[in-house]
Design brief:
By secondary structure, this protein is α+β, with helices and mostly antiparallel strands. The protein has 4 helices and 5 strands; from the N terminus they run αββββααβα. The chain has a 5-stranded antiparallel β-sheet. A hairpin with a 4-residue loop joins strand 1 and strand 2. Helix 1 packs antiparallel against helix 2, helix 1 runs antiparallel to helix 4 and helix 2 runs antiparallel to helix 3. The termini are close together. The relative contact order is 0.21.
Length: 161
C-alpha cells in the first residue's frame, strides 16, 4: 500500500510539473519558414524573437478560455496535491480520499476543456509557416489529461490503511 501511495504521489507531482511546462512554454504548434522554426503557444509567437500572439477578434475569446482553463487545471492539481498530503495525515483508517479525487477530476475536466478548444480552433495553421505540426506542450497537455484522470480515479478508490 505504501508503494502505491508513493507511486501516485510521484505521478501527481510529475503531472503538476508537466502542466506548468505545457502552460508556460510556447511550443503548442510548430512550423517551419524560410528563416527559422516558428512556434506558437498560448501566450507568444516565437521565431527568432518572441512577440505577442496575433489573434483575430473571433478567436480571442477561445484563446482566453484555453489560457484560463490551463491555469485553473494547474491550481486544481496543486490543491489536490496539498489536500492529499493533508488527508494522508488527518484521515481515519479505512476512509477514502474522496475530496482529493474530486478535485483531481475537476483538474481533469479543465484540461479536457482547454485542450479541446485549442484543438478545435488553433491547430490548423501557424502564421507565416509551412508544414505545421503539434509541439511538445500540446502533447504534454494530453498526457496530463490522461494522468489526471487515472490519478483522480485512483484517489476515489484508494483507502487509507
Amino acid at each position: 500500500m505504501l508503494v502505491l501511495l508513493a507511486g501516485i504521489f510521484v505521478v501527481h507531482i510529475a503531472t503538476v510539473i508537466m502542466l506548468f511546462v505545457s502552460t508556460i512554454a510556447n511550443v503548442w504548434m510548430v512550423g517551419s519558414s524560410n528563416y527559422a522554426t516558428i512556434s506558437k503557444g498560448l501566450w507568444l509567437l516565437c521565431n527568432r524573437t518572441c512577440t505577442e500572439l496575433p489573434v483575430s477578434s473571433q478567436d480571442e475569446a477561445s484563446l482566453k478560455a484555453v489560457q484560463a482553463f490551463m491555469i485553473l487545471s494547474i491550481i486544481f492539481s496543486v490543491v489536490a496535491l496539498v489536500l492529499f498530503i493533508v488527508q494522508l495525515f488527518t484521515l481515519e483508517k479505512g476512509k477514502r480520499f474522496y475530496m482529493t479525487g474530486a478535485v483531481m477530476l475537476v483538474c481533469w475536466m479543465c484540461i479536457l476543456i482547454a485542450v479541446s478548444i485549442y484543438t478545435a480552433r488553433f491547430t490548423s495553421t501557424v502564421a507565416f509557416a509551412t508544414n505545421p505540426h503539434h509541439g511538445y506542450c500540446f502533447i504534454l497537455a494530453w498526457i496530463c489529461f490522461c494522468f489526471s484522470f487515472i490519478i483522480g480515479v485512483l484517489y476515489l478508490v484508494l483507502r487509507k490503511k
